[in-house]
Every structure is written in structure tokens, then in C-alpha cells.
Write a structure and sequence with these properties.
- This protein is α/β, with parallel strands linked by helices.
- The protein folds into three domains: about 160 residues, Aconitase, domain 3 (2-Layer Sandwich); about 100 residues, Aconitase, Domain 2 (3-Layer(aba) Sandwich), CATH 3.40.1060; about 180 residues, Aconitase, domain 3 (2-Layer Sandwich), CATH 3.30.499.
- About 30% of the residues lie in helices and about 15% in strands.
- The protein contains 16 helices and 18 strands.
- The strands form five sheets. The protein has a five-stranded parallel beta sheet, with helices on both faces. Strands 11-10-9-12 form a four-stranded parallel beta sheet. A four-stranded parallel beta sheet has the order 16-15-17-18, with helices on one face.
- β9, α6 and β10 form a beta-alpha-beta unit.
- It starts with 5 loop residues before the first helix and ends in a 10-residue tail after the last helix.
- The relative contact order is 0.13.
- Bound molecules: 3-isopropylmalic acid and iron/sulfur cluster.
- Belongs to the aconitase/IPM isomerase family. LeuC type 1 subfamily.
- Keywords: 4Fe-4S, Amino-acid biosynthesis, Branched-chain amino acid biosynthesis, Iron, Iron-sulfur, Leucine biosynthesis, Lyase, Metal-binding.
- It catalyses: (2R,3S)-3-isopropylmalate = (2S)-2-isopropylmalate.
- Pfam families: Aconitase.
- Heterodimer of LeuC and LeuD.
């Protein structure tokens, strides 16, 4: 038999119909929806007088427009309130499970799916949201779709998709002190650029990923789309199975054994061929930070901002970007003043991220010049933060814990970084105005965020560990 990749195995198992010279008709196991990209899709169903085909394969959670304080109060912003209401009403109308504000299972869609065992290996998963790639950490094919496709999946549980090309990114060797999964992904994107994986679906392989926790794998797969990839995935293994076993919606008893036997077959065969392959050495990766306005503009924290010649997009893009950020060519990032620190988002809003943040904060104090937004990815993460004593470490240091949501990741809610201010952020995008009009974002890991939060400037976390 022809050796095949993990991606092919999962893809081929879901093709409902092959269309000659056209996209495959593809079955979707799980469909996540949130308040931003679903209202128009539901409106479409209504206009056409059709319903939702598999409400039990569809899951709704509110995250983008939710406030992160006083969630028990009515949502003040009328636009946000409307979106949230629409999600609730549509879910009720079509019998879709809905985790709205104050539901103990509420949180960011890409955090709650895996946490509740809805995301499983070998599945196809979509959501009207680009960071759906996160779920690929479980060996699922997961990707973002547009609102018209949301309508298509709601009504037919299928989607039309051309098969992407395949890329493998290998990273091997032990990771250095203070080097986290976020640094691995920012490093890969800095090497491949934001367009380097356009048209590809990426499999991450090598011992760095084999030794990584599920939280870390989710961070890496989450950021895949920032290098243009359709999605990213990692073969399921014992770490995956341990994470999933016993979660609310994972199969139980005999069904678990049967699922497990199938999941164990989900790996790339030894001689399978990829359209493109990259291999990196873990020893070359340091804690990373971005200095520009796309996620590919990242450097090792001890390095200087590169010259225009070495940057994707050429001098015009480079100058515009540095001008927006208020930085100069060849400057060091270390010591730059920080106004805001944001830890959270579907990239770094899981328990392991708060553990990392607390490991630096413990016994130190928040810097006076820093406003910190500490935002768990879900209520379940929030509960873990309290149970594990992280809450006490944070409050002793002068930090406040907020309630779950996308928060300052994209500022569709009240958490906006003011114009001109610098934010060290554990999220995934540093585009102009992403965290609020005129805001300046430095993407980094939870360790780098913590180091900035206690010193008030960009600081190498290795000096505090
Ligand atoms: C609002 C939503 C459609 C968007 C996305 O697709 O990613 C958001 O989650 C983001 O991160 O920019
Ligand atoms: S946390 Fe950020 S990246 Fe993730 S879904 Fe929300 S807005 Fe998008």
C-alpha cells in the first residue's frame, strides 16, 4: 500500500463525494459557532426555509463580544448585546447546545471544545473562525470557514473543499530554559514568513512536539494560520489520550476502547511524501518577541531588530511597520517600556499558560507602570487557577483575575489597548490596531509577558527563572 500521511488518512475518511476537477464534498464531524460569524448564517437558513441538519454536532459558545468583568450584569454595548442574544436565540430555536455568559462551560471556542472532549482525534472540525486550526493538536483536520460556509455546514453538515498541499515542519532536540511552545511557533513563523505555508496543511513532527503537552500543541497549531497555512496538526499519542480520557463528552467504556484503537492508527507512514518539508533545531530557539506588525516579525529576545533587507515584504512594509511601532532598525527589544500586559486568548489562555506566568510572578510585584489583563480562556481554566493557588500568587503580586473571553486579543469588547500604548500580549496577531485603534502589540509567551509585567519593560524571562 502507498504510504500516506496523517492528513490524508483523516481527509479521505471524510470525503462524501469526489467531484472531477472540483473540490471534494467533505463531511464535518463537529461544528463550533460563536456570536460573530453565525448570525448571518442563521438568517440565511431562515430566508431559505431550511433547518440545521445535525444540531448534536453543533456547539455554540459566546466569546468575542463578552465583557471580562461583571459578567453577571447586562452587556452594556448594544452591538455586543445583540450578537450574544442572536446566538442564544438561534441555538434555542435549532436545539443547539449553547454556552452563553455565566454558563460554567463558557469560554473561548478553541479552549472549551478540547476541554470538554468535543474535539477528538481523526475528526473534521470547522468554525467560522480562523484559529480553528487549534483543534489540529488532537490529530483532527480543523480549519476556519466563512459565514456562507457556516450556513452550508449548518444545513448539510458538509462543505466543499479543494484538498490542500501537505507540509511537514520538524523540530528536534531539547528546548532551552524559558523556551515555550509559543516561542517554537513564533520561531517557525519568523523563518517561514506569514505567507510561507499558504496553500498547505501542516503536520508538526519531531521530538519537540512529541514531548509537548496538549496545551502546548494547541498553542502551536493555533498559530499555523499566521504563516498562511489552512491548518496544522499533530499525530495523536499517549499524551493526547491521557488528556482526553474522562472528559465530559469523550467516549466511555467500550466506545473508548474502540475509539482508541482507531486513534492509534492515525499517524503518517514512514515513507509518506510531503509537498514541502522543513526541519529546525530546537537549540536555535530562544524566548521570542515580535517587534513589527505581523506575526512573522519575531526575533529571539536577546537579538536586535533586523535590517529591512532581511524582512518579508521589503523596505516599504518594514518602514511602515517600524514607524507604527515607534521602533528603529537594529534596536534591542530588551528594556523597551511596556504599558499593558495581556495573558489570555485561544493561543495562551489555558492552565499551563497561567502556571508559567505565575512561576515568574511568584514572590514579585506587578510593575507600577503596567496595566495587566489576566484573562482565563474559560471558566474551567478560571476554576483551575483558583484551585491550584495561582489566584493567590497573582493577587499577592497586585494582579487582578478577569473573567473568560477573547478580551484584548482583538478588542471586540471593552478590553482595548489605548492608542500609542505598548502591550506585551500572549495572543496571536500584532496587526495595526488589532488590540484597539493605534495599539502596539508585542507578541510573546506567558513567561515573557510575566517578565514584562513585573519589571515594566521587555525583559528576558531567563533572568527571572
Ligand atoms: C471574529 C473572527 C471571525 C476572527 C477570526 O476568524 O479569527 C477572530 O477570532 C480573530 O481572531 O481575528
Ligand atoms: S481569542 Fe483571539 S484569536 Fe482566539 S478566537 Fe478569540 S479573537 Fe480569535
Amino acid at each position: 500500500m502507498q504510504p500516506t500521511t496523517l492528513f490524508d488518512k483523516v481527509w479521505d475518511a471524510h470525503v462524501v463525494r469526489k467531484i472531477e476537477d472540483g473540490p471534494d464534498v467533505f463531511f464535518i464531524d463537529r461544528h463550533f459557532i460563536h456570536e460573530v460569524t453565525s448570525p448571518v448564517a442563521f438568517l440565511g437558513l431562515e430566508t431559505r426555509g431550511i433547518g440545521v441538519m445535525f444540531s448534536n454536532r453543533t456547539f455554540a459558545t459566546a466569546d468575542h463580544n463578552t465583557p471580562t468583568i461583571n459578567q453577571h450584569l447586562p452587556v452594556a454595548d448594544p452591538l455586543s448585546a445583540n450578537q450574544l442574544k442572536a446566538l442564544e436565540t438561534n441555538s434555542a430555536k435549532y436545539g443547539i447546545s449553547h454556552w452563553g455568559l455565566n454558563n460554567p462551560k463558557n469560554g473561548i471556542v478553541h479552549v472549551v471544545g478540547p476541554e470538554n472532549g468535543i474535539t477528538l482525534p481523526g475528526m473534521t472540525i470547522v468554525c467560522g473562525d480562523s484559529h480553528t486550526s487549534t483543534h489540529g493538536a488532537f490529530g483532527a483536520i480543523a480549519f476556519g470557514i466563512g459565514t456562507s460556509e457556516v450556513e452550508m455546514v449548518l444545513s448539510s453538515q458538509c462543505i466543499m473543499q479543494p484538498k490542500p498541499k501537505k507540509m511537514r515542519v520538524n523540530v528536534n532536540g531539547p528546548l532551552g530554559k524559558g523556551v515555550t511552545p509559543k516561542d517554537v511557533t513564533l520561531y517557525i513563523i519568523s523563518k517561514l514568513t506569514t505567507a510561507g505555508a499558504t496553500g498547505y496543511f501542516v503536520e508538526y513532527a519531531g521530538d519537540v512536539f512529541e514531548n509537548m503537552s496538549m496545551e502546548g500543541r494547541m498553542t502551536v497549531c493555533n498559530m499555523s494560520i499566521e504563516m498562511g497555512a489552512r491548518g496544522g496538526m499533530i499525530a495523536p499519542d499517549q499524551t493526547t489520550f491521557n488528556y482526553l480520557e474522562g472528559r465530559e463528552q469523550t467516549p466511555k467504556g467500550e466506545a473508548w476502547d474502540k475509539a482508541l484503537a482507531y486513534w492509534k492508527t492515525l499517524k503518517t507512514d514512514a515513507d509518506a511524501v510531503f509537498d514541502k518539508e522543513y526541519t529546525f533545531d530546537a537549540a536555535d530557539i530562544e524566548p521570542m518577541i515580535t517587534y513589527g506588525t505581523n506575526p512573522g516579525m519575531g526575533i529571539g529576545i536577546s537579538k536586535n531588530i533586523p535590517t529591512a533587507e532581511s524582512v518579508e515584504g521589503g523596505k516599504a512594509t518594514y518602514d511602515k511597520s517600524l514607524n507604527y511601532m515607534g521602533f528603529g532598525e537594529q534596536e534591542s527589544m530588551l528594556g523597551k517600556k511596556v504599558d499593558y500586559v495581556f495573558i489570555g486568548s485561544c493561543t495562551n489562555g489555558r492552565i499551563e499558560d497561567f502556571r508559567a506566568f505565575a512561576s515568574i510572578v511568584k514572590g514579585r510585584k506587578k510593575a507600577d507602570n503596567v496595566t495587566a489583563w489576566i484573562v482565563p480562556g474559560s471558566h474551567i481554566v478560571e476554576a483551575q487557577i483558583r484551585e491550584e493557588g495561582i489566584y493567590d500568587i497573582l493577587t499577592d503580586a497586585g494582579f487582578q483575575l478577569r473573567q473568560p473571553g477573547c478580551s484584548a486579543c482583538l478588542a471586540m469588547n471593552d478590553d482595548k489597548i489605548p492608542a500609542g500604548k505598548y502591550a506585551v500580549s500572549t495572543s496571536n496577531r500584532n496587526f495595526e490596531g488589532r488590540q484597539g485603534p493605534g495599539s502596539r502589540t508585542l507578541l510573546a509567551s506567558p513567561l515573557v509577558a510575566a517578565a514584562a509585567a513585573v519589571t515594566g519593560v521587555v525583559t528576558d524571562p531567563r533572568t527571572l527563572l
